[in-house]
Amino acid sequence: MNKLKLGLPKGSLQEATVKVFERAGFKIYVSGRSYFPSIDDGEIEPVLLRAQEMSRYVAEGVLDCGITGADWILENASKVVTIADLVYAKQSSVKVRWVLAVPEDSPVRSIKDLAGKKIATELVGVTKQYLKANGVAANVEFSWGATEAKVATGLVDAVVELTETGSSLRAHKLRIVTTICESTTRFIANEKAIRDRWKKAKMEQICLLLKGAIAADNMVGLKMNLEKKNLGKVLKLLTSLKNPTISNLSQKNWLAVETVIEESTVRILIPELKKAGAQGIIEYALNKVIH
Fold first, then answer.
1. Contacting residues for 132 by C-beta, under 8 A, at least 6 apart
2. Which of 57, 71, 54, 58 lies closest to 14 in space, CA to CA?
3. Cα angle for residues 164, 165, 167 (degrees, 5° grid)
4. Which of 47, 159, 165, 261 qualifies as a FRET site for 153, CA 20 to 30 Å off?
5. Which helix (H) or strand (E) is 171 found in, with range?
6. pTM
7. Mapping DSSP to helix (H, G, I), strand (E, B) and coil, where does residue 256 land?
8. Does the pLDDT value for residue 53 go beyond 90?
9. E-strand stretches of the chain
10. pLDDT per position as a tens digit, 220-245
C-alpha cells in the first residue's frame, strides 16, 4: 500500500490541527507522549514534530509533507513547496504576527532606537534579516522560553514574540514597536513527493478537505419556508456564498429557501426573517464548505 509520511505540529498548533482534521473527516488519536499518533486512513503515516523543525525534515525528505508556520519556513530557509495556506492559528482562523516589543516605559520608539541593544527571540534568523534590512546593528540572542520575563527583568532591551491579539504582551506590560513578520499555517511538501503522482494527489485531497473544514468554521446553514409574495423581502436580508437555493414546495405559492451565512449574524437575522414572513427556520452546523 502507498504511504504518505505526514508531519503534524506538536505544541501550540497541535490541538487546532487535530480539530481541523476531525472536521475534515479524519480521526487522529494522540496517546500520551507518543510521537506516532494513529489516524483512520491507512494511506497516511502521521508523525508529531515541533513546528520549528518541520520544514527542515520535509526539505530533507524524512517526511513527504507536513504542517508548520510560514515563519519557521523562513527561519530555516527551507526549500519546500507550499501546497496550501490553511490560515488558522492556535485558537482562531487568523494570521499571527511576530512583533518586536519593549517595556511600556522604554524610551525605544522605533526599530532605529535598538541600535547596539540586546534582543531575545526564538526567531533569530528572521529577526536578524529584519534588522539588517532596516540598517540596524543589534545583538540578537536565542531564547528558550519565558521571553517576556527577560525583558521585564531587564536582561534584554526588547523581545520578538509571537502574538495573535497582543493581550499577553499587554498583560506583561510590554508595548509593541513594530511587526517583524506575519505568519499563517502552511501545508508543505518536498519536491520529490510532489513529483510522485500518487502522493501529490493524496496531498491535494487532504488539503481540499482541510480548507473546506476551515471555510466552514464560522459558517452555518439556514433553511426556511415562505410564501412567494415574501421572497423579495427575505432575499434582501440574506447574504450567502452565492444566490440562495430556492425550490417550490408541494403547497401552491410556497417556497423553500436554503443558504449559508456567517454564524455571528444568525441571532440578528433569524428574528428579521421571521418578521419578513419566513417559517420553519432551521439552523444547522457545517463540517465543510468547498468553494
1. none
2. 54
3. 120
4. 165
5. helix 167-171
6. 0.82
7. strand
8. yes
9. 4-10, 28-29, 38-39, 44-50, 65-69, 81-85, 96-103, 118-121, 139-142, 158-163, 174-183, 185-189, 219-227, 245-248, 254-262, 279-285
10. 999 999 999 999 999 999 977 678 99
